[in-house]
């Protein structure tokens, strides 16, 4: 399974070590040791992005981390207490949703990961 050329180029340009697998018609992108802001422990985790069958016409929704991430002050981040099993591991689901209209041909992993980083930077 492979990603779109533009997505592969983006990941390479950013230096993200990643692997791609297909599971039940969903493409799973795992970015290894994704850095997390200081508000969280650990300081890095594997980041899972599940690309729907219609991607890039349809957008990804939510993201997952492994291992479980906690706020430095204690407790789970907001809307991130559910665990789901994918790829033989229990992933922490961050229930974050794309609030802007998805623009096929313009949006892609670069915009989804930017939105993910923006959510993480909130530290909540």
Q: What does this entry look like structurally?
A:
The chain has 124 residues and is an alpha+beta fold. It has one domain. 19% of the residues lie in helices and 35% in strands. It is globular and about 40 Å long. It starts with a helix and ends with a helix.
Summarize the structure.
The protein is built from two helices and eight strands; from the N terminus they run αββββββββα. With 124 residues, it is an alpha+beta fold. The chain has one domain (5-121).
Q: How would you sum up the major sheet?
A: 6 strands, antiparallel
Number of helices: 2
Provide the spatial order of strands within the biggest beta sheet. Answer: 1-2-4-5-8-7
Mean pLDDT: 94
Tell me the span between the first and last alpha carbons.
Answer: 34 Å
Range of helix content: 10-25%
Strand content: 25-35%
Characterize the overall form: globular
Count of structural domains: 1
Query: Pairing-aware structural class of the strands and helices?
Result: alpha+beta
Poorly predicted parts: none
Q: Quick one: how many beta strands?
A: 8
H/E element order = HEEEEEEEEH
* Radius of gyration, taken over Cα atoms and rounded to an integer in Å: 14 Å
Layout of helices and strands, plus pairs?
Elements: H1 5-14, E1 18-23, E2 26-35, E3 40-41, E4 44-51, E5 63-66, E6 70-71, E7 82-86, E8 89-94, H2 109-121
Search tags:
124 residues, alpha+beta, 2 helices, 35% strand
């Amino acid at each position: 399974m492979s990603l779109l050329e533009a997505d592969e180029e983006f990941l390479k340009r950013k230096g993200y070590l990643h692997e791609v697998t297909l599971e039940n018609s969903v493409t799973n992108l795992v970015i290894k040791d994704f850095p997390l802001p200081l508000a969280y422990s650990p300081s890095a985790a594997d980041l899972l992005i599940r690309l729907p069958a219609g991607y890039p016409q349809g957008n990804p929704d939510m993201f997952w981390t492994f291992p479980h991430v906690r706020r430095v002050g204690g407790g789970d981040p907001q809307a991130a207490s559910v665990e789901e099993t994918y790829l033989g591991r229990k992933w922490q689901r961050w229930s974050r949703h794309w609030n802007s209209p998805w623009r096929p041909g313009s949006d892609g992993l670069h915009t989804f990961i930017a939105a993910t980083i923006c959510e993480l930077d909130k530290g909540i």
